[in-house]
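Loading example: each entry is read as two labelled lines plus one structure line.
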Amino acid sequence: KAGVTQTPRYLIKTRGQQVTLSCSPISGHRSVSWYQQTPGQGLQFLFEYFSETQRNKGNFPGRFSGRQFSNSRSEMNVSTLELGDSALYLCASSLDPGQKYEQYFGPGTRLTVT
Amino acid sequence: GNSVTQMEGPVTLSEEAFLTINCTYTATGYPSLFWYVQYPGEGLQLLLKATKADDKGSNKGFEATYRKETTSFHLEKGSVQVSDSAVYFCALSDFTGGGNKLTFGTGTQLKVEL
């Protein structure tokens, strides 16, 4: 079974621009979560989607948004990019949103803001 | 809120040495506990999990036991290999507030030398 895929793998943007990242979950997985990884803050939860609904949201500004489609694929968008948004963005999928269900991570999208 | 505390790294060991990476947690509910591993330039890989007290997760020679009385989930391996060099993350998942959210420790870098 194919794993979680994320596109693009690398991205360079300029301050003030916006960016959209894409995530395709493992087939059959209905829950998709997004995390930001930086050297300073570590791994931080952004949001989780299940059945096209955002079920949980981390402590990030409104510039960070996401959505999930009927086929469970998900996108996240960051508007008005800031230098501090440079990070590895990881998507994870799980069978169901219950806490006992492990999350499987994709390879990430490395975003660099200049 | 929930939190995970891991021992500081980096940890440097000789091949075939015994490994322990300490992890303790604070949670309001009854979380599930996980260890993830990240190799350079990659996303996170699930190493093992435990969903209730006294559960032991194991995989690839790694083990961890869910200790509710000491709120710990220490990772151990009897004999490490050079290929085990990576960053290890302890994480907890709970369903409080709806949705499945992982809270991570800061990660412990392991370097195994010949």
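Chain A has a mean pLDDT of 94.
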